[in-house]
Amino acid sequence: MVKRLAALTAITIIVLNPNGLLAGTPSEVPAHPEIISNNQVPNTPLTEIFEPSLTTTPIAKQPVNAAPLNGFRIDYSARYSAFTLDASLELKKMAVADTYTYEATTKAHGLAKLFQSGTARERSEFLYRKKSLRPILYTYSDGSNKKENGSRIAFDWPNRTARSVHETVSTELLLETEIHDRLSADLNSIIQLRNGQTPKEQVIAYRNSIRRYKMTALGKETIDIPAGTFVTDKFLRQRINSKRSTLIWFAKDADYLPVRIEQQKNGKTNVTMVATNISTNKQ
User: What is the spatial distance between Cα 283 and Cα 275, in angstroms, rounded to a whole number?
Assistant: First the structure.
């Protein structure tokens, strides 16, 4: 139960991942000199990070991100069984050029505090340029303040590898061109919708492995929630042969931000998150 309540943090499987929490189950993060801290950005030129080294087709040099992402914050009311929690998603621009953070938090109420006393945090640090997003560092903490309860992935794009630490176990992952962490994958789907594209797949570094999820468009649906009434594009996100899935409603009038999320098992909803407030700011 502790892991379930601590997981209400992302939009990919936004709440209560059946095997634990959301984006990564708690894990101890041993010291690795190759992993950057939360406040650092690799000292690697952006041209190297975005260079598609897996292909041989040259790409013309382009100016640094002429259209930056606008920051936003979404507050959610979440319910799992008899428990209620507050959750949020927030995008912020960092001081370093083209660098952003995307953070999800979850805070328990009432009896739920017996299982999650602190605030669970999931954070993705990434670079955005040429309308493309590349994760740099992903971290997760379940709010328990236990050192072993954390997860961390450091992406090394020039070498096409990522150092992942999950539940004290460290491994090296091989990166493809379009691999994300759980948060950056969700934000990438939002960006695709804004650019007139239909998200079809998410490839995610998760729990010391690379996993593929199918995104299925279910059509448009008008929903009425505390944050307002929205015409949305509804999607089903599911890993092949998995009994668990996530429904996400992206609101076109709110720049395709996710205003409702439901997690399901065997087709039955067990977790619901609805937006209560949406605020945006230009960078």
Answer: 23
